[in-house]
Amino acid sequence: MAQAKACSPTCPSFKCSKNSAFFRRDGVQCNWTEELCNVANCTYSQCLKRRMLPNGICGETVRRQTVEKDFEDDIDVPVKLKGKALRKFGEKDIY
Length: 95
Prior knowledge:
The chain is mostly beta strands.
Protein backbone atom coordinates (compact mmCIF):
# COMPACT_ATOMS: atom_id res chain seq x y z
CA MET A 1 0.00 0.00 0.00
CA ALA A 2 1.40 3.41 -0.96
CA GLN A 3 2.06 6.04 1.64
CA ALA A 4 0.63 9.54 1.50
CA LYS A 5 3.05 11.96 -0.15
CA ALA A 6 3.78 15.53 0.81
CA CYS A 7 2.66 18.22 -1.60
CA SER A 8 5.52 19.77 -3.51
CA PRO A 9 5.79 23.21 -5.10
CA THR A 10 6.77 21.59 -8.41
CA CYS A 11 3.26 20.12 -8.77
CA PRO A 12 1.27 21.73 -11.63
CA SER A 13 -1.68 22.24 -9.24
CA PHE A 14 0.38 24.16 -6.65
CA LYS A 15 -0.05 27.92 -6.38
CA CYS A 16 1.44 30.53 -4.08
CA SER A 17 -1.23 33.09 -3.21
CA LYS A 18 1.45 35.78 -2.78
CA ASN A 19 2.83 34.96 -6.27
CA SER A 20 6.30 34.86 -4.75
CA ALA A 21 7.39 31.33 -5.72
CA PHE A 22 9.91 31.04 -8.55
CA PHE A 23 11.87 28.10 -9.90
CA ARG A 24 15.61 27.78 -9.42
CA ARG A 25 18.06 24.95 -10.03
CA ASP A 26 18.02 23.72 -6.44
CA GLY A 27 14.23 23.94 -6.02
CA VAL A 28 11.43 26.44 -5.74
CA GLN A 29 12.47 29.64 -3.97
CA CYS A 30 10.11 31.99 -2.14
CA ASN A 31 10.79 35.67 -2.82
CA TRP A 32 8.82 36.72 0.23
CA THR A 33 10.83 34.70 2.80
CA GLU A 34 13.97 34.29 0.64
CA GLU A 35 14.12 30.57 1.47
CA LEU A 36 13.18 27.34 -0.25
CA CYS A 37 9.42 26.89 -0.43
CA ASN A 38 8.07 24.78 2.42
CA VAL A 39 4.48 23.83 1.62
CA ALA A 40 3.69 22.38 5.04
CA ASN A 41 4.54 25.55 6.98
CA CYS A 42 3.46 28.21 4.48
CA THR A 43 0.04 29.80 4.96
CA TYR A 44 0.01 31.09 1.37
CA SER A 45 0.37 27.72 -0.36
CA GLN A 46 -2.74 26.34 -2.03
CA CYS A 47 -3.80 23.61 -4.40
CA LEU A 48 -5.78 24.55 -7.50
CA LYS A 49 -7.64 21.22 -7.30
CA ARG A 50 -8.37 21.82 -3.58
CA ARG A 51 -6.73 18.55 -2.60
CA MET A 52 -4.15 19.80 -0.09
CA LEU A 53 -4.70 18.43 3.39
CA PRO A 54 -3.35 19.88 6.65
CA ASN A 55 0.42 19.58 7.17
CA GLY A 56 1.02 19.81 3.41
CA ILE A 57 -0.14 16.30 2.48
CA CYS A 58 -1.39 15.78 -1.07
CA GLY A 59 -4.99 14.56 -1.00
CA GLU A 60 -4.64 12.74 -4.33
CA THR A 61 -2.14 10.28 -2.85
CA VAL A 62 -4.33 9.37 0.16
CA ARG A 63 -6.64 6.38 -0.13
CA ARG A 64 -10.08 6.58 1.41
CA GLN A 65 -11.02 4.28 4.24
CA THR A 66 -14.52 2.92 3.94
CA VAL A 67 -16.43 1.53 6.87
CA GLU A 68 -19.15 -1.01 6.30
CA LYS A 69 -22.07 -0.77 8.67
CA ASP A 70 -24.25 -3.73 9.51
CA PHE A 71 -27.92 -2.96 9.23
CA GLU A 72 -30.28 -5.18 11.11
CA ASP A 73 -33.30 -6.31 9.09
CA ASP A 74 -35.22 -7.14 12.26
CA ILE A 75 -35.92 -3.54 13.14
CA ASP A 76 -38.76 -1.93 11.18
CA VAL A 77 -38.80 1.84 11.34
CA PRO A 78 -42.04 3.45 10.21
CA VAL A 79 -41.83 6.12 7.52
CA LYS A 80 -44.22 9.02 7.90
CA LEU A 81 -45.83 10.24 4.68
CA LYS A 82 -47.20 13.65 3.74
CA GLY A 83 -48.96 15.20 0.76
CA LYS A 84 -49.43 13.20 -2.45
CA ALA A 85 -47.73 10.10 -1.11
CA LEU A 86 -50.18 10.01 1.83
CA ARG A 87 -53.15 10.29 -0.54
CA LYS A 88 -51.70 7.65 -2.86
CA PHE A 89 -51.02 5.00 -0.22
CA GLY A 90 -53.79 5.98 2.21
CA GLU A 91 -51.84 5.12 5.35
CA LYS A 92 -49.98 7.43 7.70
CA ASP A 93 -47.22 4.97 8.56
CA ILE A 94 -45.58 2.58 6.11
CA TYR A 95 -43.46 -0.29 7.40
